[in-house]
Structures are given as C-alpha cells and as structure tokens.
Amino acid sequence: MSKSFTATDLEAYLDEALPAARMAEVEQALRDDRELAAQLTTINARRDAGVHSLGEIWRRHRLSCPSRERLGSYLLRVLDQDEAGYIQFHLEVTGCRICLANFEDLKSRQTDEPATVDSRRKKYFQSSAGHLRRR
Fold first, then answer.
1. What is the pLDDT of residues 14-30, one digit of tens each?
2. How many domains in the chain?
3. Rounded CA separation 40/48 (Å)
4. What's this model's pTM, rounded to 2 decimal places?
C-alpha cells in the first residue's frame, strides 16, 4: 500500500469523510497505484462481508458529529467553552465535510435578507396548508 495513505484514510475515502483535497489525492493515487487499488478492494470486500471495526462504525454513523442544532448554537456563540472548542476542532482540524456544509448553510441563512426569510416562511406555511389541525 502507498505509504502516504493508511487503511483509515481508505476507509474514510469510502465513506466520503475526507476533506475534498485529500479525497482528490486518494483518487489520483488509486489511478496510479494498482497495489493501493487492490487494498481498497480488499477493504470494500471486508465491509460487504459485514466485518467492521469499532472505528469504522463510529465514522460511518458520524457519532462524533455535532447535531445541526449544536452547530447553530456554536454559530450563535451560546455554547460553553469546552463544547465550542470541540466543534471548532471538528470543523477546522477534522474537516468533516458534512458538518462544514451544515455550518455554511446555517451561516448563509443567518445573513439572509428579511424579504428572503419572509418568502421562505410563506412557502413553509403554504406547503403545510391542510396539514395543520384547527382547534
């Protein structure tokens, strides 16, 4: 196997859990290195057979990812220092693409113009018409 990629890197590649630049590096290496491609095939076959490590389960089910609600609280700076530090590490150092996408979406919604927010609110109400019970 290529010295620059570990089995953990390949597992994360299969889960699309690497930062985009690292994903591209793995992809290019897989094209150029038959041994690395064979290693990936072996890992994938082991997964298909149902053999999983605790780390694989943890990554696949994103057990370390904060919820969207916690990301929103982080954005509003209402979390205690320890939790805020963890989320900052998760976003900036780990580079979790799913959490980064959620965080960027929350940030963009925070800066939406009032007219955009009103329009979105109106669409929600219109789409739920007939689903709400009258009292």
1. 888 888 889 999 999 99
2. 2
3. 12
4. 0.54
3-state secondary structure of 131: coil
Dump pLDDT digits (tens) for 33-82: 999 999 999 998 988 887 777 767 777 778 889 999 999 999 999 999 99
Structure tokens at 103: 């965080």
- Residue 133 forms part of a structural domain: no
Burial 51-86 (b: 16+ CB within 10 A, else e): eeeeebeebeeeeebbeeebbbbbeeeebeeeeeee
The domain in which residue 54 lies consists of 7-60
- Give the residue from 44, 60, 76 where a domain finishes: 60
